[in-house]
């Protein structure tokens, strides 16, 4: 997992996601893997996939750090000034 964390930090999100997909295929109950995959998708800009992975991690472990990441991402999305979108 340390290698995957470093890949995400380095911005190599596609490689991290590929490794996490392989890991999850064999370890479907790993909340940490879903949390990290959520982080990779968030860094890549795919908010929907990030939220889906955070939710899966939270289902597997309600005490997962994915709860905080999920809540923060929702807060960021709610912060946008929707009145400015059409200008």
From TrEMBL:
Entry keyword set: TPR repeat
UniProt repeat feature TPR, residue ranges: 31-64
InterPro entries xref list: TPR-like_helical_dom_sf, TPR_rpt
Positions of transmembrane segments: none
Pfam family, one: TPR_1
Official protein name in the record: Tetratricopeptide repeat protein
Organism ancestry: Bacteria, Pseudomonadati, Bacteroidota, Bacteroidia, Bacteroidales
